[in-house]
């Protein structure tokens, strides 16, 4: 059996990285041999918006299409013990930020779309998400738990400026007095500081901002359409000044690529973050090939080394390596990894957090305030 190797540099020479998107190709998805209509699960759809990015080079311009969808449900349940929330709401599918490492990319395969370029240029907007959520929260059978907004998409990606679906979701949460958290890489969250500040005063919200690296050059190719690192630090400061409990996510940790975890934690703490967390790079399904392609394009000298360390972190055995696997979905170790390299990473994180005073106090949101009747819009009693 031949060892599965990353694509050779010569094989990728013809690829032209577009200005903006992070993936230069349409990666074939795992269901591509099945005969299915694109987006067949939702018949009531419409293309709402399409725009091209300006391109300075000779690569063809990349257009972004936003397709409207009527959601059948808003709340998604999660029973994984390694995830800190039990329910989530994602107003969009796909994400314009184009982060190459995004673990949500393979979800586009269920839509018969590529987890590569399609994921960041074909965005599904759940136009009725707030109304559906209101119905679910007003149900007497609903049991409150912390809901996370933006676990599989950035809830403040560019299209949110026009559609305001995330704000609508938060307004429903406010009406129901239902606590929630949100996570983003976008400065767009500052638009809603009025609402977030109000909710924070009642212990109903916590926010997290992801800063993968402070290296602006690396960020431009790793997460090309997200806010610049310095801008995210300003967002942390703005949230903290508005009284919103804010934490920083230094995820994912990619061996030999973003090596400045300590510097990110220091900068975030100085900006006002009081908590922090991290995960290691995860490469499920098609993301394995996507990341391999990106590494050979941008870091051909260390691509094999990076992938070998990722396989070490996930305990991939020799047979798995020969098969080209880079990930183990075991919930015990998938987030933080296992083995000596994972232990060293964990020590770096905890030592720095201890010095900075991060994670000393847990942000406790108040579940007792939830009232189903208020979700129906019968009045807000703040």
From TrEMBL:
Keyword Aminoacyl-tRNA synthetase, does the record have it? no
Which positions fall inside the Radical SAM core domain? 89-264
* Top-level taxonomic group: Bacteria
Stored InterPro entries: MJ0683-like, rSAM, rSAM_sf
Q: What Gene Ontology terms describe what this protein does at the molecular function level?
A: catalytic activity; iron-sulfur cluster binding; metal ion binding
Q: Which UniProt keywords apply?
A: Iron, Iron-sulfur, Metal-binding
- What PANTHER family is this protein classified in? SLR0285 PROTEIN
**Would you tell me the protein name for this molecule?**
PA0069 family radical SAM protein
Q: Which organism is it from?
A: Diaphorobacter aerolatus
């Amino acid at each position: 059996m031949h060892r599965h190797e990353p694509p050779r540099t010569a094989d990728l020479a013809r690829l032209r990285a577009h200005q903006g998107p992070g993936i230069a190709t349409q990666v074939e998805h795992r269901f591509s041999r099945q005969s299915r209509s694109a987006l067949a699960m939702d018949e009531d759809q419409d293309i709402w918006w399409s725009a091209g990015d300006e391109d300075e080079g000779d690569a063809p311009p990349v257009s972004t299409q936003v397709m409207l969808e009527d959601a059948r449900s808003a709340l998604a349940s999660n029973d994984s013990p390694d995830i800190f929330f039990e329910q989530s709401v994602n107003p969009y599918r796909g994400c314009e930020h184009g982060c190459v490492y995004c673990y949500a990319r393979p979800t586009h395969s269920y839509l018969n779309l590529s987890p590569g370029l399609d994921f960041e240029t074909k965005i599904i907007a759940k136009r009725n998400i707030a109304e559906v959520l209101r119905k679910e929260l007003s149900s007497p059978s609903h049991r409150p738990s912390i809901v996370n907004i933006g676990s599989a998409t950035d809830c403040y990606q560019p299209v949110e400026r026009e559609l305001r679906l995330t704000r609508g979701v938060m307004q429903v949460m406010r009406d129901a007095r239902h606590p929630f958290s949100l996570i983003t890489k976008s400065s767009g969250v500052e638009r809603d500081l009025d609402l977030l500040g109000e909710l924070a005063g009642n212990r109903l919200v916590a926010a997290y901002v992801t800063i993968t690296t402070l290296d602006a050059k690396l960020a431009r190719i790793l997460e090309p359409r997200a806010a610049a690192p310095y801008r995210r630090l300003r967002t942390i400061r703005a949230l903290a000044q508005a009284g919103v409990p804010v934490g920083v996510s230094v995820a994912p940790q990619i061996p030999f690529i973003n090596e400045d975890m300590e510097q990110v934690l220091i900068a975030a703490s100085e900006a006002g973050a009081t908590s922090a967390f991290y995960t290691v790079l995860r490469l499920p399904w098609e993301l394995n090939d996507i990341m391999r392609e990106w590494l050979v394009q941008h870091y051909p000298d260390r691509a094999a080394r990076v992938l070998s360390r990722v396989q070490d972190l996930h305990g991939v055995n020799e047979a798995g390596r020969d098969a080209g696997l880079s990930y183990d979905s075991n919930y015990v170790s998938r987030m933080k990894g296992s083995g000596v390299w994972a232990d060293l990473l964990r020590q770096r994180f905890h030592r720095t957090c201890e010095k900075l005073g991060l994670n000393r106090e847990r942000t406790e949101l108040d579940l007792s305030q939830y009232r189903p009747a208020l979700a129906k819009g019968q009045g807000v009693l703040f």
